[in-house]
């Protein structure tokens, strides 16, 4: 409920800013009747979407949730793109107004050029949002991702690890989508499947989702860890559902596997639900330390952590590989990296990272709860281990 109210408050703030900037900076646009009708007319639609969203969350009506949240999310994205366009055009508009005070009015041709240039910004923004909405419905890529380790034991050369995270079965991803993904993944012959949280937001489907993962044929099995959405949906209920399957749920612990005489240790960190305060970071650190506390010294170790920041605590412990999710690549990417990667390098938002002898791969996830992806397509990477 707190998230829903916060999001609606954010929507109202963006809506108000759009109106203020349009009326003050773009009076010519504001005089267009169709634009005013479009802006004012979408507000009742947003109220309807909010009401449907809240009702569907209360009664777990998945189809209604898709409609309600979808309406509000789409309207917010378009309003946000308009706000960005207005903010970007503000310096040019202000400079034009100042120049008009000290110089004769510009020629009609120059005014027309300026008008077309300014209109291009919101048009491009709306086009980008439309593209991102369409791309969010594309199927997850099963991309082979080689990682190289100096200390990789010979029996683990070529080990194929399917990494699945953030499926978010609910409004936009259903059980049929997961089944299709696993059928495609089966053809890649993974040796091991690791699922790093946020599996299912529609609780009536949670057990069926676990059954599908349980049926995936792998040589070394499938293992799961928790994400923040498991806590949001009720972690005690989630644990009881896991107890009805053979899938190991690793929380603050791990499991040693013998691979042709070589030790492989799979560990699972708990999720702090919210990673904001010093206390939450301390909980993540303690969980990482507990998860690998019983790892055999000579074993190659893989840590599942929903949060990519676990790398900071895993690398001093000599953990070889961390697999994480949660970020969704911040929904915006270019060239296999999040557009926010350089702004927040310590968040390890998407892709492969190194720290000491440890490596991390953060996947941008299979699903989403915000139906938008631009340059950040859904994925379930197949990590292939190699000797460096």
Protein model, in words:
The chain is an alpha/beta fold. The chain has two domains: 2-135, no CATH class; 144-387, Metallo-dependent phosphatases (Purple Acid Phosphatase, chain A, domain 2, 4-Layer Sandwich), CATH 3.60.21. Helices cover 46% and strands 16% of the residues. The chain contains eleven helices and 13 strands. Strand 2, helix 6 (175-186) and strand 3 form a beta-alpha-beta unit. Helix 1 runs parallel beside helix 4 and helix 3 (33-59) runs antiparallel to helix 4. It is elongated, with a radius of gyration of 24 Å. The N and C termini lie far apart (49 Å). The mean pLDDT is 90.
Helix/strand/pairing category: alpha/beta
CATH-derived architecture of the largest domain: 4-Layer Sandwich
Task: Give the low-pLDDT segments.
Answer: none
> Which strand-content bin applies to the residues?
15-25%
CATH C-level label of the largest domain: Alpha Beta
Main features:
single chain; 13 strands; six-stranded mixed beta sheet; alpha/beta; 2 domains; 388 residues; five-stranded mixed beta sheet; Purple Acid Phosphatase, chain A, domain 2
In short:
The chain has 388 residues and is α/β, with parallel strands linked by helices. 46% of the residues lie in helices and 16% in strands. The chain has two domains: 2-135, no CATH class; 144-387, Metallo-dependent phosphatases (Purple Acid Phosphatase, chain A, domain 2), CATH 3.60.21.
Fold blueprint:
Layout: H1 2-25, H2 27-30, H3 33-59, H4 62-102, H5 108-135, E1 144-149, E2 160-164, H6 175-186, E3 192-196, H7 206-214, E4 222-225, H8 228-233, H9 235-242, E5 253-259, E6 262-268, H10 278-291, E7 300-304, H11 311-314, E8 321-324, E9 333-334, E10 337-338, E11 351-355, E12 358-362, E13 382-387
Parallel strand pairs: 1-13, 2-3, 3-4, 6-7, 7-8, 8-12
Antiparallel strand pairs: 2-13, 5-6, 9-10, 11-12
Helix pairs in contact: 1-3, 1-4, 3-4, 4-5, 6-7
